[in-house]
Design a protein that fits this description.
about 140 residues, alpha+beta, 4-stranded mixed sheet, 4 helices, about 20% strand
């Protein structure tokens, strides 16, 4: 997969985007009224110039602001967001393990939930009770 760096500069009401890595002599500038539109137009331009399908598996466009202050605060926010997502992933793994362990040690879902600060319904989602293998299936009258 190829990543194309695109730099956006505010000009009046528009974001003007220059895209690196396109063949010499080809159009490498587009614009958008919003950040999202500028990013979409940059992807479209790469797709048209390189004659490739607009597919994230084929290429990406890394759009960054040209202004150094904007770039720094956006980068900082993206890093913080990535840290939050990673922490949430670790939290889900730890909560699932804790719920399964506590229920496996004989605590009720309600008691396990109180220990972990969540509802018993959440514990039921994280550590569902195993179905009784010896239970007879009830027949349903037609």
């Amino acid at each position: 997969m190829t990543t194309h760096k695109a730099t956006a500069e505010r000009q009046g009401r528009f974001w003007v985007v220059s895209i690196d890595g396109l063949p010499d002599g080809e159009q490498n500038v587009t614009q958008g009224l919003t950040w999202t539109e500028a990013h979409e137009n940059a992807r479209d331009l790469v797709s048209l110039v390189l004659d490739v399908e607009d597919d994230p598996a084929v290429y990406t466009v890394d759009l960054v602001p040209a202004d150094p202050v904007m770039f720094e605060v956006v980068r900082e926010a993206e890093e913080a967001d990535a840290a939050v997502q990673e922490a949430e992933k670790r939290r889900r793994v730890a909560m699932t393990r804790a719920a399964k362990t506590l229920v496996g040690l004989g605590l009720t879902q309600a008691k396990a939930g109180r220990m972990l600060g969540v509802t018993h319904q959440r514990i039921a989602q994280l550590a569902p009770k195993a179905a009784n293998k010896n239970a007879k299936k009830k027949s349903v009258a037609a």
